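Sample intake — Benzyl alcohol O-benzoyltransferase
Collected from: Arachis hypogaea
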Amino acid sequence: MSSSSSKSPSPVFTVKRCKPELVAPAMPTPRELKLLSDIDDQEGFRFQLPSIFIYGHNPSMEGKDPVKVIRDALSRTLVFYYPFAGRLREGHARKLMVDCTEEGVLFIEADADVALDQLGDSLQPPFPCFEELLYNVPGSEGIVNCPLLLVQVTRFKCGGFTLAFRLNHTMSDGTGFAQFMTAMAEMARGAHQPSILPVWSRELLSARHPPRITCNHREFEEPIVDTSTIILSKKDMIQRSFFFGPTEIASLRRLVPRHLGECTRFELVTACLWCCRSKALQLAPEDDVRMMCIVNARARFNPKIPLGYYGNVFAYPAAVTTVRKLCENPFGYAVELIKKAKDEVTEEYMHSVADLMVTKGRPLFTTVGSCIVSNLTRAGLREVDFGWGNALYGGVSEGGAGDFFGVTFMMDCVNGKGEESVMFPIFLPVKAMERFEKELADMLCKSCDNGYPTLSDLPCSSNL
């Protein structure tokens, strides 16, 4: 395990940007209103999700301009994904729909005055320079009546480039966005249409008539504690990334009793994060703490959700316990709660969530004492190839989701030994971050006979 380093200086460089432009579909597309599903338009998804892809210099692409290649690919991809070129409208009972106007997505061409290797540790979250690589165009950050995608391509002096996105999360989940990105990359490499054609069919995840809440949804419970003392803003917090290689995963696996059976890497790291974070925040022993696991439900439908569907198809069931029970029980206790929560998600569970949304006015999930983990390691974001090869990094640019900083994203990466690893960025108050790092080291040490496990030798990231 290695973490971000507060000693690394933030890189200083200048980015020269062209005026933002609107990129429309390359051909005429249908003008229509398309309803989002009742999973898509819940309150918890009404935020903009930033991500970034970093590509190194490729001699075989000499003379090719990544800005032109990607702009053209984007325009041609929007012919198939034309709702992205429209604007969201809000109707009765806060129902969201896409007005397919062909207005286009915002696109920015930019140049940086440094080479990628001059950024050093900053090629991973958190990116202290991210606002240079994805300019927040004034007036573009809303949910309704605003562009659904913001894209910036920044060339670097070495021939590499970054491709940064900001996605309106109501339109797509991680799997859907990866599908869109893959389609863009295929078009950039010369395809005439995506290998997987997009499917709208949002009615598959709309509420039933009449709606009926048939499952227990602890992710939407009302908290019974005073929230006034625990609401924090971004300025009160720092962000760091943590990396788990094969050594750390093996260390966690040794802490799990055999009767729990095989555990996934996601379950192990999520349980570790939950325990260490809860201790670091020093919450009251009898307070409830929730770990919500993002569960992709596509394969849990019968028949399955159609291949090509790019809307949101996930739930975030909550594993719930008290701080005292979480901290005093063995590690296997947290793992078991997480495994049980993940297993709750079925086709009926998804329909029950959609029905809850229309019945209760699209409520926000429980934020008090909560942490949410999304697993993006299977999305294949690093493999998105526009002709320059795999990305050096591909994934979210930071933790958090809108104004809620208890969200983290697990992404795949490779350490200095060439080993496949997992990383996640988290926000915590400064003192809590120090305690988190100590708790994490202590936990990994428990399973080792001779002190601490070997730390992965991935380069460290800088804190915000």
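Post-analysis note: The domain at 218-446 is CATH 3.30.559.10 (Chloramphenicol Acetyltransferase).
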